[in-house]
Each structure stands twice: as structure tokens, then as C-alpha cells.
Amino acid sequence: MTDESTDPAVERFLDRAASALDDYDEGYADADATLATLRTHVDELSASVEESEE
Description:
This protein is mainly α. It is built from 2 helices and no strands. The protein has one domain (about 10-54). Helix content is about 80%, strand content about 0%. α1 (about 5-25) runs antiparallel to α2.
């Protein structure tokens, strides 16, 4: 993932993942909801990386 075109996708993933974990830590989301959110963000990052490879 050294391609510069993936940098925004990685930054977006890290921001969204941190936000989901913060919500969990603050008690705003349970573990299942947090994992579902993180899975969605992982899937989005994966799709973005695959697009940049084409």
C-alpha cells in the first residue's frame, strides 16, 4: 500500500475506525455494533485499494 492514491482511503479508514472505537469506549455503542462498523470500514478500504490496483 505504498501507492499514493490509497493514502486518502487509509486516512479515512483510520479516522472512522478511531471514531467507532471512541464511541465504544464512551459507551455509545456495544461491541457487536462496533465490530459491524469496523467491518464495513475494512470492506470500504479493501474496495478502495482494489480500485487503485486496476
